[in-house]
Structure formats: C-alpha cells, structure tokens
C-alpha cells in the first residue's frame, strides 16, 4: 500500500513598511553628479536641487528637510565655508558631504565639526550603495536625535542606603 502525501506550501508573509518620503536638499553644481543623485534618491524622497550656496540656503528655509547633501567642491573651490553656513542656519538637519579625492580630507575635518558623514562621489553610479548609505545615515540621525531627547537618569549616590 502506498500513501500519497500532498505537499502544502505556505506563502511567506511579506514585510511591508511604510516610510514617509524624505525631504532632501542637494547642493551640487556638477550636473552629471546631480542627475545621478536625484535619479536614485527620488526613489526614497523628494530631492530639491540647487547649484549654489545662496540658493541652497534659501531653499533650506522654504522646505521641510530631513537631510542636506552638500558638495565640498562648489565652483571648483574646496572650502569649509558652505558647510559652516548650512550648519549655522540648519543645526537640526543632518548634513552629508559629497567628496572626491581632492576634498576627502576637508570632508573628514568637517565631520569633526558637525557634519554627519561624507559620501564618495565616485560611488554615485551605484544606486544601491547610495540608497543604503542615505538610509543608514537617516537611521543614525534619528537614533542620535532620540538619544538627545532621552531623559538623563540621575546618578545614584553610592553612600545612600537604597
């Protein structure tokens, strides 16, 4: 006697997380880099693109932003000044610096003065990399923001009899 067994397949549950679109300001004067970034990041948010510091600072006042992506080499001049201007005007918005080989050390210096991170401009063609990095930076920013809001626990006096 043979027994026939029927295989039952149960579909795996699909995890669906609804994430609100990010408001991202991109300040980049290289049109090719800006195109690649916008094309990729439009998948996860609304990207507002400006080519210069003054327009970017104005846009940052007009829009609700979650993130600022700032080139460290605007008009071909590596400088900390644009970063300092954005940080002063928008201290609560994470700033990620877009660097190439020429501006990497300047970007690393800026991370010591308040920038969240640097991104290598040579990686913009890899859209998966760019989305993963931006997502991880946003998680880090949210974690840091929440830890700043957390109430401090009072220190316990070692001499008390609690």
**Shape-level CATH architecture:** 3-Layer(aba) Sandwich
The biggest sheet amounts to: 5 strands, parallel
Mean of pLDDT: 84
The fraction of residues assigned to DSSP E strands is: 15-25%
Keywords:
162 residues, Rossmann fold, five-stranded parallel beta sheet, 5 helices, alpha/beta
Q: What does it look like?
A:
With 162 residues, this protein is α/β, with parallel strands linked by helices. It has one domain: Rossmann fold. Helix content is 38%, strand content 16%. It has helices at 31-41, 53-62, 81-89, 104-111, 127-149, and strands at 22-27, 45-50, 67-71, 95-99, 117-120. A 5-stranded parallel sheet has the order 2-1-3-4-5, with helices on both faces. Helix 4 (104-111) links the parallel strand 4 and strand 5 (117-120). The longest helix has 23 residues, at 127-149. The protein is elongated.
Give a quick rundown of the structure:
The protein has 162 residues and is an alpha/beta fold. It has helices spanning 31-41, 53-62, 81-89, 104-111, 127-149; strands at residues 22-27, 45-50, 67-71, 95-99, 117-120.
């Amino acid at each position: 006697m043979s027994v026939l067994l029927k295989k039952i397949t149960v579909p795996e549950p699909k995890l669906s997380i609804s994430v609100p679109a990010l408001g991202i300001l991109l300040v980049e004067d290289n049109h090719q880099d800006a195109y690649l970034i916008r094309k990729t990041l439009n998948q996860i948010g609304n990207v507002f693109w400006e080519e210069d510091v003054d327009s970017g600072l104005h846009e940052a006042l007009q829009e609700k932003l979650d993130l600022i992506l700032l080139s460290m080499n605007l008009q071909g001049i590596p400088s900390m000044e644009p970063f300092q201007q954005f940080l002063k005007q928008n201290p609560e918005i994470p700033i990620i610096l877009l660097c190439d080989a020429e501006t990497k050390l300047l970007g690393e210096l800026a991370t010591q003065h308040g920038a969240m991170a640097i991104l290598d401009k040579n990686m913009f063609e890899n859209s998966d990399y760019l989305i993963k990095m931006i997502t991880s930076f946003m998680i880090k920013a949210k974690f840091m923001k929440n830890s700043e809001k957390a109430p401090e626990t009072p220190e316990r006096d070692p001499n008390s009899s609690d």
